[in-house]
Amino acid sequence: MKPRGMVGRRMLLVAALLCASGQAGAATLKFRPQGAEMLRLVQAAIATLNTKDLPVTLDTASGPILALGSSGAPFNPDVAARVVVVGTERRIEFNPQGPLPLADALRAELSRELGLTEWSPAAARTRLSGADLNGDGKIDLSDLALLMNNYGKTNATVGDLNQDRKVDDADLRLFSSQYRP
């Protein structure tokens, strides 16, 4: 599979996939699994990311379609998954006879989609908590610089960690709680 592009594009993709639930420290992932087996596998994968500090849930109303099998061309036997885009709809197809067990292929592909460095609660907390503002998989001083660049602004999208349409002390406190030097 080829790389998906620059950090800016990835941040837009994650923003489309990730919907803050209105409270800091919770995430809802938007994917549309097709079929009972795919739904079960997605729910099981997401459950492994779920923690008390970062509840992660699935919203199946929108987002990329996750399908077992092909909607068109046959799979290369060495490919576990592929992304097909038709118009504005993204479809992630998983090879049922691929080189990886389906659960592993699903976690690997969702890791790529979400920009996770690994499929773990710690990686999910870093990436999905909102404090990784530049999308590099780390919460560091470059993220703080982005937050401070918008500090005091209203209707800013970068740095508004608590989704209250302004970047202020509350966002700085949320960032501080997630930053580990």
Automatic annotation (TrEMBL):
Keyword Signal: yes
Keywords recorded for this protein, A-Z: Signal
Annotated signal peptide: 1-26
Domain EF-hand: 132-154
Keyword Cell membrane: no
Name of protein: EF-hand domain-containing protein
Native organism: Deinococcus malanensis
